[in-house]
């Protein structure tokens, strides 16, 4: 029998399944079932050409050889859980560590590393489902998670998450796409960003929160007015600890999933803009500080800082910080976790 590592098969020995959605404007969005991963977004530009706006690998199999979580669906709990523990109904509970003593992005075999089932598929819609058994990566209870992707004719990629549980469990689902709106191979720090957040969460060099949400005012962390990522890059101690931007921003209460964006991002050449909307309370801004060595689309490797991720989520380590000003990240049996994020792309 051929071993999966000698073929283009997924780690479970089965083929990867890819699906491409296309809209009336000619934009495409491609996904695969492994990790319910968003592989590509191509946008027709004003001059008739088409541009790839996401970082990605040459083949689905290459995604197995990277730790950047390119385009993956991340869960059960995106971002970090300090010391891989929290209390469930007053009792200490441990989850599986995968970043030293901490847990990052749901553990070593998190939702990014699983085959999701395709539930529904049309020209512009795609739904994936995953069953996660009691104890998966240390989490309590069985969970069923769904991710709905929809590509609209006005170039919005809408992502809707849903999850149900049979025991009390913290849930924080996100997508880990990296954007480079200039196309591949450029330094994404030349993008201009506007982020509607008056507070960010300071972290230590492991990315673990080390203070409460803190005003961005008068610091290099402030993106309330548009500026390039390069402008104040590494100017603050907060950034120096983690080699750049790798911080959660607590969105202003005016941000929502439909009309008031969380962020705008502009390509350096001024030809593409992206607007992000989300129902989540926070966004992790990650400037690709550790991207170096990640396999790229042409068989080579990405350099660090070649893409920027804007991940919708609860603040990191929220199961251990019940008093932070955001809704609860816990869901109970009978409740449905729901979170929506839309990335809309504009050819300028
Ligand atoms: C984290 C980074 C991490 C990256 C890839 C981001 O969401 O905040 O610290 O390096 O994911 O794992």
Automatic annotation (TrEMBL):
<feature type="binding site">
    <location>
        <begin position="79"/>
        <end position="80"/>
    </location>
    <ligand>
        <name>beta-D-galactose</name>
    </ligand>
</feature>
<comment type="similarity">
    <text>Belongs to the aldose epimerase family.</text>
</comment>
<dbReference type="InterPro" id="IPR011013">
    <property type="entry name" value="Gal_mutarotase_sf_dom"/>
</dbReference>
<protein>
    <recommendedName>
        <fullName>Aldose 1-epimerase</fullName>
        <ecNumber>5.1.3.3</ecNumber>
    </recommendedName>
</protein>
<dbReference type="InterPro" id="IPR013458">
    <property type="entry name" value="Ald_epimerase_bac"/>
</dbReference>
<dbReference type="InterPro" id="IPR014718">
    <property type="entry name" value="GH-type_carb-bd"/>
</dbReference>
<feature type="active site" description="Proton acceptor">
    <location>
        <position position="311"/>
    </location>
</feature>
<dbReference type="GO" id="GO:0006006">
    <property type="term" value="P:glucose metabolic process"/>
</dbReference>
<dbReference type="InterPro" id="IPR015443">
    <property type="entry name" value="Aldose_1-epimerase"/>
</dbReference>
<feature type="active site" description="Proton donor">
    <location>
        <position position="176"/>
    </location>
</feature>
<keyword id="KW-0413">Isomerase</keyword>
<feature type="binding site">
    <location>
        <position position="246"/>
    </location>
    <ligand>
        <name>beta-D-galactose</name>
    </ligand>
</feature>
<dbReference type="Pfam" id="PF01263">
    <property type="entry name" value="Aldose_epim"/>
</dbReference>
<dbReference type="InterPro" id="IPR047215">
    <property type="entry name" value="Galactose_mutarotase-like"/>
</dbReference>
<dbReference type="InterPro" id="IPR018052">
    <property type="entry name" value="Ald1_epimerase_CS"/>
</dbReference>
<dbReference type="GO" id="GO:0030246">
    <property type="term" value="F:carbohydrate binding"/>
</dbReference>
<comment type="pathway">
    <text>Carbohydrate metabolism; hexose metabolism.</text>
</comment>
<feature type="binding site">
    <location>
        <begin position="176"/>
        <end position="178"/>
    </location>
    <ligand>
        <name>beta-D-galactose</name>
    </ligand>
</feature>
<dbReference type="InterPro" id="IPR008183">
    <property type="entry name" value="Aldose_1/G6P_1-epimerase"/>
</dbReference>
<keyword id="KW-0119">Carbohydrate metabolism</keyword>
<dbReference type="GO" id="GO:0033499">
    <property type="term" value="P:galactose catabolic process via UDP-galactose, Leloir pathway"/>
</dbReference>
<dbReference type="GO" id="GO:0005737">
    <property type="term" value="C:cytoplasm"/>
</dbReference>
<dbReference type="GO" id="GO:0004034">
    <property type="term" value="F:aldose 1-epimerase activity"/>
</dbReference>
């Amino acid at each position: 029998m051929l071993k999966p590592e000698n073929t283009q098969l997924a780690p479970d020995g089965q083929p990867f399944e890819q699906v491409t959605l296309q809209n009336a404007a000619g934009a495409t969005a491609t996904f695969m079932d492994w990790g319910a991963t968003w592989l590509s977004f191509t946008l027709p530009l004003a001059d008739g050409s088409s541009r790839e706006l996401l970082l990605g690998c040459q083949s689905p199999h290459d995604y197995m050889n990277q730790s950047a979580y390119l385009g993956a669906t991340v869960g059960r709990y995106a971002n970090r859980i300090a010391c891989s523990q929290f209390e469930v109904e007053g009792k200490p509970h441990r989850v599986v560590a995968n970043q030293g003593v901490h847990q990052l992005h749901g553990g070593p075999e998190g939702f990014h590393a699983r085959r999701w089932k395709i539930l529904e598929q049309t020209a512009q819609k795609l739904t994936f489902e995953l069953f996660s058994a009691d104890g998966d990566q240390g989490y309590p209870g069985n969970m069923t998670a769904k991710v709905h992707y929809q590509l609209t004719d006005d170039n919005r990629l809408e992502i809707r998450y849903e999850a149900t549980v049979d025991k009390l469990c913290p849930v924080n689902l996100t997508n880990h796409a990296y954007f480079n709106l200039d196309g591949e191979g450029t330094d994404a720090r030349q993008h201009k960003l506007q982020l509607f957040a008056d507070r960010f969460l300071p972290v230590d060099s492991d990315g673990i929160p080390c203070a409460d949400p803190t005003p961005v005012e008068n610091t290099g962390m402030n993106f309330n007015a548009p500026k390039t990522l390069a402008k104040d890059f590494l100017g603050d101690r907060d950034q120096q600890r983690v080699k750049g931007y790798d911080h959660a921003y607590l969105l202003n209460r005016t941000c929502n999933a439909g009309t008031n964006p969380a962020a705008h991002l502009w390509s350096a050449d001024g030809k593409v803009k992206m607007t992000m909307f989300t129902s989540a309370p926070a966004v992790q801004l990650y400037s690709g500080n550790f991207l170096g060595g990640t396999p790229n689309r042409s068989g080579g490797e990405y350099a660090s800082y070649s893409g920027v991720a804007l991940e919708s989520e609860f603040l990191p380590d929220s199961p251990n910080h019940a008093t932070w000003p955001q809704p609860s990240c816990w869901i109970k049996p009978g409740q449905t976790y729901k979170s929506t994020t839309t990335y809309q792309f504009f050819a300028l």
